[in-house]
């Protein structure tokens, strides 16, 4: 298993955005991944996941690369659900678990969350995708970009409210390891009011670690919003299998709050302690 590590935001924010080209996705800044793939073949990817995923034509290499370089479709389902259900992030402590691009956490941050933490299995994803995305969205907050204007290819540097950045922390590593690091951290760790997690139940081998991490990190009155395909063909996971484990463990109650039927069937599950 991959050990847990905290990634700190460099003082010079320009460093984070060096060599990055930004696009917008659902009104949020997002690094152009093809550019990351081109610039990431040397030291920047000490895990070697970019070349491994390209050469194996695979979005998932169990235990090596867990999919965080691309944005998976359930992220958009969950973002839609936030607006439909008017989920409130203001003053909440939030964890984007298995964050990849980190768009869910960024939405929470824009919703005035008090604290947002991001976790991905892969350190390269955190360094090359998540951190640049969060920085780009934070420093451009407050600049008066009209909605009708096309987005700048590169966000203006050094302006806006990096204040929001002080609310963020970034972690890589396997779930049990990260959970242990967070809970044993002497920096007055507090549990999360909201845990957001999208497309993280594709592999049944990880269910136990995921369940225990949620149980360990969620506040007693907190809520998990989990977005998933109903079934992951080829990998074997899916919502019913994960629900079965949750029932056996008897810690959480669950409800399916939305199903999406276009294309592959998907759903959103809410979880809270019994
Ligand atoms: C398929 S990606 C989804 C990324 C993102 N949430 C999205 O919707 O675009 C799965 C995410 O879960 C994380 N993940 C999967 N298995 C993990 C494990 N066993 N330990 C830690 N993180 C894991 C990966 O790093 C990745 O961020």
TrEMBL record:
Q: Where is the composition biased (Basic residues)?
A: 146-156
Q: Known EC number(s)?
A: 2.1.1.85
- Which SUPFAM superfamilies does UniProt cross-reference here? S-adenosyl-L-methionine-dependent methyltransferases
Question: What's in the keyword line of the UniProt record?
Answer: Cytoplasm, Methylation, Methyltransferase, Nucleus, Phosphoprotein, S-adenosyl-L-methionine, Transferase
Primary location group: cytoplasm
Among the record's GO biological process terms, what is one? methylation
Q: Which GO terms describe its cellular component?
A: cytosol; nucleolus
- Subcellular location(s) of the protein: Cytoplasm, Cytosol; Nucleus, Nucleolus
Primary enzyme class: transferase
Outline the segment boundaries, as ranges, of region: Disordered. 142-162
Q: Which reaction does it catalyse?
A: L-histidyl-[protein] + S-adenosyl-L-methionine = N(tele)-methyl-L-histidyl-[protein] + S-adenosyl-L-homocysteine + H(+)
Indicate whether S-adenosyl-L-methionine appears among the record's keywords.
yes
Query: One GO molecular-function annotation for this sequence?
Result: protein-L-histidine N-tele-methyltransferase activity
Pfam families reported for this sequence: Methyltransf_23
Quaternary assembly: Interacts with GRWD1 and members of the heat shock protein 90 and 70 families; these proteins may possibly be methylation substrates for the enzyme.
Q: What does this protein do?
A: Protein-L-histidine N-tele-methyltransferase that specifically monomethylates RPL3, thereby regulating translation elongation. Histidine methylation of RPL3 regulates translation elongation by slowing ribosome traversal on tyrosine codons: slower elongation provides enough time for proper folding of synthesized proteins and prevents cellular aggregation of tyrosine-rich proteins.
Q: What is this protein called?
A: Histidine protein methyltransferase 1 homolog
What is the source species?
Scytalopus superciliaris
Q: What is this organism's lineage?
A: Eukaryota, Metazoa, Chordata, Craniata, Vertebrata
